[in-house]
Amino acid sequence: QVQLVESGGGLVQAGGSLTLSCAASGSIFSINVMGWYRQAPGKQRELVAAATTGGTTTYADSLKGRFTISRDNAKNTVYLQMNSLKPEDTAVYYCNADIRQRAWGLLRDYWGQGTQVTVSS
Fold first, then answer.
1. C-alpha 82, offset from chain centre
2. Beta bridge mates, 22
3. What is the pLDDT of residues 9-62, one digit of tens each?
4. In sequence order, which residues have a C-beta less than 8 Å from that of residue 23 and are 6 or more positions away?
5. 3-class DSSP state for residue 20?
6. What are the beta bridge partners of residue 70?
7. DSSP class of residue 54?
């Protein structure tokens, strides 16, 4: 079994910062892409940022410059540093990872349980 456990969410004032963490554990051979998505009430889940094992990163255009994704491959952990937070950043943030459990196994998509980020004005 594989688990993704997120931490670091909470309540912050506009203009503040938060750092989210997500650690993957369990039967893991390798991890390809790790990333963050978010879902605000009444809206679809959207990509926030993603990072490959090699360090290539992708961001939602609207978040470039405020959010930074990073990985610690040795710890199977991905981070999301969020700066200059706005009320519209309020959402549940989900960790996502493409994980291979065996050397010749398939890559499978895993999700964390989500962590709430609330930005007050």
1. 11
2. 6, 78
3. 999 999 999 999 999 999 999 999 999 999 999 999 999 999 999 999 999 999
4. 4, 5, 75, 76, 77
5. strand
6. 79
7. T
